[in-house]
Design a protein that fits this description.
Laminin, Phosphorylase Kinase, domain 1, 16 helices, alpha+beta, 4 domains, transmembrane, Protein_kinase_ATP_BS, transferase, seven-stranded antiparallel beta sheet
Length: 728
């Protein structure tokens, strides 16, 4: 059976609940009014009553019977009006917010499929209800926690390594939305949309792996807590006592008798819904698009821009732009008729989701952006982007989430010479978003499309005509560099598969990409391991710069007026950037030095044990990070040169590349470090290093070397066992 699992943290970042209904009508338009089912205003663990649904569906075309008792209590029963094919779209409910983790919810899942239903057949509809938030609390004590006036839960957690007096302060899991029917006396599920997991008590802070718990996570094979049920389900609460761990999302399901129309998307941030509508089959149309004729109700094929319907009423052909005198009268009539239709539909178009995009298309992107920056001195327009028809794109599974929305693995046809499917990564923009978010999304697409280099992720194209909007990128199956480095740390009795040469190779790849950006007068502003991607995890891997989220901001005229430092990558920024807002190519040089430190520490958070404010004070006072354990001396010298206080003393990327190549050729050998680093005590690391005449074996594996060091939490240090590496 086709189950669709939405993994933890696979959520679209929306400000409001998305309305995917527009997507469905982009490929099938029917005059039949759709039937729209909701939770009827019910919330919490109890379903709606008949009275609630009567009030909710008053003056609508929906009429349901609500079960009053028994296992089906709160389930809505709807009778199918005609024997036809129907498109059923289900929306799972979002999860609840945690007491101190209330910026966003875990989104419920949207899924759509087509089913053949018979007249008078009964459908049982259970609409998922949003998981309850942990706040506001019911008592004065919980209210203090919600207001941030009490940290009792954190204190108990740190003291007891678990919670005994408290339920945990996390949000409840969102309910799944079920559509099922009775067949041969048994219930048969047709479509189930998963609910979002409940948010944890407090948000997981990046760096806590390095700053507090470290190696207890490395060999931990525990999976996120689930309820023990299998198959489709709503979101779960987290069953372990980790106050920063979100509940796992549920699993969606489509009955094999149905045809999946749209694969699962994590988009809903409130209660679930169900939409049922008569399906218009457009498979006979070359474009895959059609609508019903208003008089006969028969499907009529429609064509996309720059094509018109051929005489066979099925195919689409290119428009003919040459004119003969005999066609002038016909042309004038056509223009008049079209203008009349445009005037009549002007108000509808202004309300259309496409309005903002069309408004942006009428001018260049540079209009609203900093005029000091441009692409080779030219204004960039959306017409330069390669538009790919939505019918050529298929979503396969969620990969993760980005600054705008979900990132999916998918395929696209019509790109390769042999028209075979090409695997791509698809970045999405929520349908409901601010105009600034839309501008930022389009700017990122324009930025990536301008580059052509083997160490920068390639933009395959865009799909902006249909919501949600897509950017199609080269698929990097190796994932992000930071996760790759962490997963390849050495463990007891298990050396890392990485060699020193491997680390130098990926550093060289990113330096090549940075050199290309520098030569094209482009400033990235966020060179970091989390923003670099790998083509694969095995030998032959190539590292590429893959995220230009911060780069797009430098084109925004209002960027320099931004307040606050919370959104800035302080640990990767030089003093002049976070103090004065000055960004040059030497800003990326500094960041590359921090990236080198990340690579040779195998993915640890820079400036261990220091907050952003402490890093700011540390760097401005002249402090610099010590080398990672067993880092070769020439590599650490590149880092320190990148961290020169004055930008003019930092090397450019041509020089950095030369020095990285030197590191692969220098003749020396490292002696194992005999004493551990005291990173939290403020002392310098004690190390033993010798320059010898023998060559370093760069194919040596990285073996675990057990030692103790102090690790800081914000107020205290604790001693833990830590695995580092040494060459053997």
């Amino acid at each position: 059976m086709p189950y669709f699992s939405m993994k933890k943290n696979s959520h679209l970042l929306l400000n409001k609940k998305i309305n995917i209904y527009y997507i469905l009508y982009s490929s099938c338009e029917a005059p039949d009014t759709p039937w729209w089912f909701s939770s009827c205003g019910a919330s919490g663990p109890q379903g709606p009553t008949q009275a609630q649904c009567h009030n909710a569906y008053h003056n609508s075309n929906v009429s349901v019977t609500v079960e009053k008792e028994g296992p089906l209590r709160g389930v809505q029963i709807w009778k199918v009006p005609e024997s036809k094919q129907y498109m059923i779209s289900a929306y799972g409910a979002a999860g609840g917010k945690g007491a101190k983790n209330h910026n966003k919810r875990s989104h419920g899942v949207f899924i759509s499929a087509i089913f053949k239903l018979e007249k008078d057949e009964l459908l049982y509809i259970l609409v998922g209800q949003q998981g309850e938030d942990a706040c506001p609390g019911a008592s004065s004590q919980t209210m203090q926690i919600c207001l941030g006036e009490s940290s009792e839960i954190e204190e108990e957690y740190k003291k007891e390594k678990g919670l005994t007096e408290w339920a945990g302060g996390g949000g409840g899991g969102g309910g799944a939305t079920y559509i099922f029917r009775k067949k041969n006396g048994a219930f048969e599920p047709l479509l189930i949309a998963a609910g979002g997991g409940g948010k944890a008590y407090m948000k997981y802070q990046e760096g806590s792996l390095d700053d507090e718990f470290l190696e207890q996570y490395v060999n931990n094979t525990a999976v996120p807590g689930i309820s023990g049920r299998t198959g489709a389900a709503g979101g779960h609460a987290f069953e372990t006592d980790d106050i920063t761990a979100d509940g796992q999302d549920g699993v969606s399901f489509v009955n094999p008798i149905g045809e999946v129309f749209l694969s699962p998307l994590a988009v809903i941030e409130s209660h679930g819904e169900v939409i049922i509508e008569v399906y218009v089959n457009c498979n006979h149309c070359q474009s895959g698009l059609c609508k019903r004729a208003p008089d006969t109700h028969l499907p009529i094929c429609i064509c996309q821009d720059d094509t018109v319907l051929a005489s066979d009423n099925i195919s689409c052909i290119g428009k003919i732009y040459w004119l003969c005198p005999s066609f002038i009268s016909v042309l004038f009539f056509s223009v008049y008729h079209r203008k009349k239709q445009q005037l009549e539909g002007a108000r509808a178009r202004l309300q259309s989701p496409e309005y903002n995009l069309s408004k942006i298309r009428t001018s260049t992107i540079m209009t609203d952006y900093n005029p000091n920056y441009s692409f080779a001195g030219k204004a960039a327009t959306l017409s330069e982007l390669k538009e790919i028809p939505r019918k050529n794109i298929s979503l396969l599974r969620a990969l993760g989430h980005g600054a705008f929305g979900e990132v999916y693995k998918g395929t696209v046809v019509g790109i390769t010479a042999d028209h075979s499917p090409l695997q791509v990564a698809i970045k999405t923009l929520p349908e409901i978003c601010s105009e600034q978010d839309e501008m930022d999304f389009l700017m990122e697409a324009l930025i990536i499309s301008k580059f052509n280099h083997q160490n920068i992720v390639q933009c395959i194209g865009v799909s902006l005509q249909t919501l949600p909007r897509f950017i199609l990128l080269e698929l990097m199956t190796g994932g992000d560099m930071k996760s790759f480095l962490r997963q390849n740390r050495p463990r007891v009795n298990q050396p890392s598969t990485l060699t020193m040469q491997d680390l130098l190779d990926i550093a060289r790849d990113i330096a090549c990409g940075c050199k290309y950006l520098e030569e094209n007068h482009f400033i990235h502003r966020d060179i970091a391991a989390r923003n670099c991607l790998l083509t694969c995890t095995g030998p032959g891997r190539v590292a590429k710069i893959g995220d230009f989220g911060m780069a797009r901001d430098i084109y925004r005229a209002s960027y320099y007026r931004k307040g606050g430092r919370a959104m800035l990558p302080v640990k990767w920024m030089p003093p002049e950037a976070f103090l004065e807002g000055i960004f040059t190519s030497k800003t990326d040089t500094w960041s590359f030095g921090v990236l080198l430190w990340e690579i040779f520490s195998l993915g640890y958070m820079p400036y261990p044990c220091k907050t952003n404010q402490e890093v700011l004070e540390f760097v401005t006072s002249g402090g610099r990070m010590d080398p990672p354990k067993n880092c070769p001396g020439p590599v650490y010298r590149i880092m320190t040169q990148c961290w020169q206080h004055s930008p003019e003393y930092r090397p450019n990327f041509s020089t950095i590349l030369e020095r990285i190549k030197y590191c692969t050729q220098v003749r020396y050998i490292l002696i194992k470090i005999q004493e551990c680093f005291m990173w939290c005590s403020g002392g310098h690391p004690k190390k033993s290093m010798s320059i010898m005449n023998g060559p370093l074996n760069y194919s040596s594996k990285l073996f675990p070397h057990t030692f103790s060091r102090h690790l800081c939490s914000r107020n205290s240090c604790r001693k833990v066992r830590k695995l580092s590496f040494s060459t053997q």
